[in-house]
Amino acid sequence: MPKKKSKVKKQKSLKVTVTNPKTINSNFQFQGVGLSDDDLKKGKVLTTHWIGDTKYAWDQGVAIGKYLDGLKAGKILGVECHKCGRKMVPPRIFCEWCFKPIDNWVELLDTGTVNTFSLCYVTWDMQRVKKPLIPAVIEIDGASKGMGIMHLLSEVDPKKVHIGMKVKAVWKLEKEREGAITDILYWKPIK
Amino acid sequence: MALKERLTKKSEAKAWYGDMPVESLYTVGIAGEKFFRAIKDDGIFLGTKCKKCNIVYVPPKIYCERCFEKLEEYIEVADCGSLESFTCVHIGLDGKRLENPIFVGLIRLDGSSTCIIHKLGETTVEELCIGMRVCAVLKPKKEREGSINDILYFKPTKE
Amino acid sequence: MNDRVAIIGIGATQFRSISPDVSYKELMFEAAVKAYEDVGINPRKDVDTFVTCAEDYIEGTSIFDEYVPDQLGAALKPMHTITGDGLHGIASAFLQIKTGRFDVAVVEAHCKPSNMLSPDGIEACGQDPIYNRPLKLNTHFIAGLEMNRFCYETGITFDQCAKVVIKNRKNALNNPIAGRSAKLTLDDFQYADGVSCPLTELDVAQPVDGAVVIVLASEAKAKALVKDPIWINGIGWCNGTPSLESRDWVHLDYVTKAAEMAYKMAKITDPRKDICFAEIDDRYSYKELQHMMALKLCCECGAGQCIDRGATEINSEFPVNPSGGALGMGYLYEATGLARLYSACEQLRGNAGKNQLKCAKTALVQGWRGLPTTSTVVAILSSQGGCNG
Amino acid sequence: MGNRVAIVGAGMTKFVRRAQETGKELSYHATKMALESCDMTLDQIDAVVLGTAPDTFDGVHMKGEYLSDGAGAWGKPYMRSYVGGGTGVFSVAQGWYHIASGLIDTCIVVCEEKMSSYRPHPQGAFLTIFDHTTERPLKPNLLWIFALEMNRYMHTYGLRKEDIALVAVKNKNNALDHPCAQIAKAVTVKDILNSEVLAWPVQRLDVSPVSDGAVALVLTNESIARRVTNKPVWVEGCGWALDTTYWTNRDLCYPRYVEEAARMAYKMAGVTDPRHQIHIAEPYDPFDYKELHHMEGLMLCGKGEAPQLTVDGVTQRDGELPTCPSGGLLGVGNPIAAAGLMKVAELFWQLRGEAGKRQVARKVRRGVAQAWGDLMQVGTVVVVGI
User: Fold this and answer.
1) Residue C41 lies in a domain
2) Does the N-terminal or the C-terminal CB of chain B have fewer CB atoms within 10 Å?
3) Does the CB of D295 have a partner CB in chain C at under 8 Å?
C-alpha cells in the first residue's frame, strides 16, 4: 500500500488573483464523451452488467396491516384524529399535523370523486400501450375533504373522464382477494 | 407509550413482499477502457502514474485521488507481484455456505503502488502465506471480453 | 465562533432481531416520541430542522426521504437526508445549529434489516461495479482480507479479536435495549463457522431492527430546556478512498484525521487521559482494535495487550463499548453510530444501570459506515452530571 | 449570525444521454474545472459536499461513498445529502451551513448523476419511489404523478396546454446557446402539441430528457472569497421544506412546500418583495408546467398567473424576469442532482456577467434557484446575489 503522504496541511496562503477570473469563452472544451445506444449494443465500449438480488419483506405493522385486512373484507378503512377531526386514508397510527397517536378506526365508503387523473400510454419501463391506463387520485367518500388514494379507473371512455366525476370501486371476487391494494380491481363511473 | 394500538396476535403480523428491480449496464470508463483493452488485446497490465505523489495506480485512474492531478500517462506493470493478504470465503452472494470455498487475494503487482483484488487458484490453504509471489493467469485470448474476469485467478510461483 | 451545541434528548426502541409488530414508520414514531418526551418538546412547534440518515437499498425504496417526515413531526418543515451513519447526521445538525439560524435540531436513524430477504445481495451492490463486483464475492470477503493483513502486520492474534466479542456481548447482558447479548468463551470460537477466514461468524456483528432519535440544541436553548445537557465538545468526520485497490489495509488514516479534527475542537491532547470511555464501531471484532489504534486510545503495549489485560472492560483503565457495542447490541446499519451515541449519553447521564461507569464525564463516540467504505465520524461528548472516578 | 458564504468557482461536464465516463470520472471533470476556474487546488479545500439522487440510477449502493474520490474527498470531511430531485439546489444549502458554521472555510459542492446505467430504461428506477405496499402493486410510473399534478394545476386555474408549452419552447431554444446542452434543437408550440402523448396531459416534448452529467461549485467564507476573486457571488439565503408523504391527501394545484422553502430563504436574504427584489430565476423545470408551478411557489407571481407572464415574454432572456436562461432541464438535460446544481452555476455565471451568449439583457444583481423532489413534496431554494 502506498505510504501515506504527510498530513495535508491546510495552505490558506492563497494567491491573490484579483485579475478578472477566467470566463468561459466559446473555445472552452467541456468534458464528457457521449455515446449512442448503438455504441453500447455493438460493444464499441466495454461494459459490465449486473442484475441485483434485492428482495424485501416489509412489515405491514399496525396501520397498513389493518388497512389491507379491510380491503380483503371488501372495506376501505380510515383513521380519525380526535384532535383535528380529520378522517384519513391511507390509515396511519399518528396524526402528522397534531403529532399524536391515533387509533380511532372508521369505515369509509367504496365510492369517491376523481380529484385528478391521467391517460397514460406507457408502462413503468416506458413500453408503449394502445389502450391507456387511467391513474387517478380518488377522494374517498366518508373521509375528510381532499383525502384521496391513488388508483386506476376503467369501464369508462377515456374521453369522458373528468375531474369531479363520481366513481365506485370494482372489487375482486371475495375468494380471490388477498389483502392488497389490488383487491380493488379499478374504479368505474357511477351512472 | 408511543403507539396506542399494538398487534397482539401473531397472525396479525404480516409482511408485504417485493423487490427493487435493479439491472445495470456500466461503462468501464475512460481509464477502465484502457486497462481492460490492454488485458484483452495484449495480456498486459496498465497503470497511471502521479509524478507528484509518486503513486502508480493499477487499475488506473484518470486522476490522482490525493492531489487531483490529471493522469494521462499509462505505464505497463508486471503481471506478477506479492500477496499482501488473502482470505478464504465460505459464504456466497446469496448468503448460503459455499460447497467450494473461494480463495481471494490482495495482490500488489511489481511496479504498482496499489493492489488488485482477485481470486487465487492452483493453491491450497497450507501453501498460502502473506508475502508470497503470485502471477496472473489469463483466459485464452479469444475468450477475453474486456472485464476483470479476463483474469482467471492468480497462482503462486516459485521465482 | 458561535456557542456550543448540546444533546438534550434521546430516544430509542428496543433492538430486536425481528420486529414484525410494527412498520418502519411505527418504529420511527416510537423512538421519536421517546426523544421528544425526554426533553418535553413538541416537534410541530419547537424543532427548527430535521435530519434523517438512510440508504435506499437498505430500505427497499428509492428516495426514501419521501417516507420520513410524518412520523417525526417534520411535515412541511426543513428536513433532509444525509446518506451516512447516524453520526454524520449529528455532524450535519451540529453545523446547522452553529450557523446561528437553528436552535433545535432532530437527527433520526433506523433500520429494519429483518425486512431484507437478500442482505448479501443488497450489500454486494455497494461494491465497485467494474473492478470488484464481477468477481461475485460476498462482501464480507473485504473484512476477511483486512483482518488477515491487520493481524499479520500488528501481531494481534485471532484470539485477541475473539476476546473483543466476548467482552462486548457480555457487556450487553446488562443493557436493557441490547439485542445480541450472550455469555461466550474462547471455546465457542473453535466451533464457529468461517465466514471469510480468519473471520468467523462470531466475529461479525449480527443485524437488529431498531430506531434512534436524538434532539440537539444551541447552548442558550439547551440551558433553557434541560438541567444537564450533554455537550458536543468536538466533532470530526473524514473519508479515505472508496477503492479497495488504493487503500491502506492496516492504518486507518481517515479515522485518525477525523479524530484529530474532533480532538482539536475539544482541546484534547491526550485522549486516553482526557476521555473517560469510548463507544466505537465494532462491526467486526478486529475493527474495535483497529479503530482504537487509529483513535490513539490504546495503551503503550498495543491494542492486543489492552484486550488481554482487560483494560477495556467496564471500570477498567479505559472502558470501550460498555454498552456492548454493535457486537452485543446488534448492528443497525445507518443507525449504528446513533446507538453508540445513545449509549454514551446514558452513561454521561448516570443512567446506565448495572453497566454504569465510575468515570463517565467525557466520552468518545465513533461510527464507521461498514464495507466497503472508508467513512467515519468521531464525536467528543461531556456532561456535568456524569460521575468522575 | 453566521459567516457570509460566497461561490467563487464553477465547473460542469457536458450533459449527455449516455456518458462513457464512470460517475467518478464525471465528478472529477466537474470538480477539477470548478477548482481551476478560481485558481484553487484541492489541498486548499477543507470539506466536500456531494449531492446525487437515487442509488438505483448509477446502480451502486451507498453511491455517495463510491463517488467520493472523484469528488476530491480523499482525506477530507465528506457528506452526501439527498432530497430526491431537490438535491442539486439543496447541496448548496449544505455547503452553506458547512461554512456558515465557522468550522469549515472552503468547500466543494459536487453533484453527479449517471442515469444511463439503469436498464432497460432509467424511468424504470422510479417505480420504487412509490409506497411499496399501497402504490407499487399498481405499477405506477413517474409520469403518472406529473400528469396528475399537471392536470390538477390546469383544471384549478383553467390553463391551456398551448400556454404551458411556451415554457418548453423558451427553454429548449435557450439551450441552443449552452455548450453543455444535450438537446440543442429549436422547437415551436406546434411541435410540442403534436408530439407523442405519454400520459395526458404530458406529451413527449413537455418532458426533460434523462441524462448523465456532473456539476461542481467552490464555496468559501468571506475572507478567502475576497482573496481569490473580485467577483464573489454571495449565498444570501437558503431554504428547504419537506411536505407530508401522503401526497394523495394534498391539493396538487399549488406547491406549498416550495413556498415554505422560499419564505425561509427570502427571510435569510432579507427579501421582502420577491417580485421586485429577484432579478433572475432558475426554477426547476423537469416538465414545462413545473416552471410555472414553481414560479408561483417562489411567489414571483400570484397563483395561476405564471402562464400569462410567459405569454407576455416577461420570462425571456430579454424580459423583465429572465427565467431559466440556461435552457433549464428541458433544454440542457436532466441528470437529476447535477441539473439542480447547474441552475445555481448558471446564476453564478449570469451574476458575474460570464454567461456568454446566454447573458440576459437586464442588469441582474440577485437571483433565485429552486429544485423540487420526492413525491411532489420537497422544495429547495437558494438566493444568490452580488
Assistant:
1) yes
2) C
3) no
- Work out the number of other CB atoms within 10 angstroms of the CB of residue B126: 6
Domain presence at residue C303: no
pLDDT in tens, B48-92: 999 999 999 999 999 999 999 999 999 999 999 999 999 999 999
Distances (CA, A) of D142 to A120, D129, D145: 11, 9, 6
Q: Considering only the beta carbons, identify the residue of D20, D43, D133 that sits closest to B30.
A: D20
Q: Does C290 map to a domain?
A: no
Say if residue C389's pLDDT is above 60. Answer: no
Which structural domain, as residue segments, surrounds residue C70?
Answer: 5-117+207-225
* Strand (E) or helix (H) holding C144: helix C141-154
**Closest alpha carbon within chain D to A15:** D228
Q: Is some CB atom of chain B closer than 8 A to the CB atom of A2?
A: yes
Closest CA to B94 of D365, D129, A55: A55
Cα–Cα distances (Å) from D304 to D148, D241, D297, D337, in that order, read 17, 22, 10, 27
Q: What is the rounded radius of gyration, in angstroms, for the C-alpha atoms of chain A?
A: 27
Strand partners, B16: A58
Neighbors of chain B with 3 or more C-beta pairs under 8 Å: A, C, D
- Output the pTM of the full model: 0.95
Tell if the CB–CB gap between C76 and D84 is shorter than 8 Å: no
| C139 within a domain of the structure (yes/no) | no
Helix axes D161-174, D288-297, angle to 10 degrees: 100
Amino acid at A166: K
Domains and CATH numbers, chain D: 5-119+209-385 (3.40.47.10)
- Say if the Cβ atoms of D22 and B28 lie within 8 Å: yes
Q: Which of A47, A62, A68 is nearest residue B26 as measured by Cβ atoms?
A: A47
Q: Is A4 on the interface with C (CB under 8 A)?
A: yes
Mean pLDDT score, C244-270 = 96
Interchain pair A92, C70: CB under 8 A: yes
Residues with Cβ < 8 Å from D321, sequence gap 6 or more?
Answer: D278, D279, D280, D281, D300, D309, D314, D315
Per DSSP bridges, beta strands A87-88 and A94-95 are unpaired
| Residue D86, SS3 per DSSP | coil
**CATH code: domain of residue C86:** 3.40.47.10
A11 by Cβ neighbours in 10 Å (0-12 / 13-18 / 19+) ranks as exposed
Q: How many domains does chain C have?
A: 1
Is beta strand D106-114 parallel, antiparallel or unpaired with respect to D212-221?
antiparallel
A5 pLDDT higher than 70: no
Residue A56 at interface with chain C, using a CB cutoff of 8 Å: yes
How far is residue C163's CA from residue C288's CA, in Å, rounded to a whole number?
A: 11
The Cα-based distances of B135 to B80, B150, C7 in angstroms read 4, 14, 55
Q: Which of B11, B27, B116 to mutate to test the interface with A (most CBs of A within 10 A)?
A: B27
Chain C stretch 92-151, residues whose beta carbon is closer than 8 A to a beta carbon of chain B: 115, 117-121, 124-125, 129-132, 134-138, 140-141, 144-149
- pLDDT band for position A127 (50/70/90)? confident
The minimum CA-CA distance between D267 and chain C, rounded to whole Å, is 11
C-alpha pair distances (Å), C107 with each of C39, C210, C216, C226, C377: 14, 14, 8, 18, 15
Q: Which residues of C touch A90 (CB under 8 A)?
A: none
**Cα–Cα dist D136/D149, whole Å:** 18
| Touching subunits for chain C (3+ Cβ pairs under 8 A) | A, B, D
The answer to whether residue C247 scores a pLDDT higher than 80 is: yes
DSSP assigned state of A159: G
Coil, helix or strand at residue C337: helix
D248–chain C Cβ distance below 8 A for any pair: no
Distance to chain B for A64, nearest Cα, Å: 10
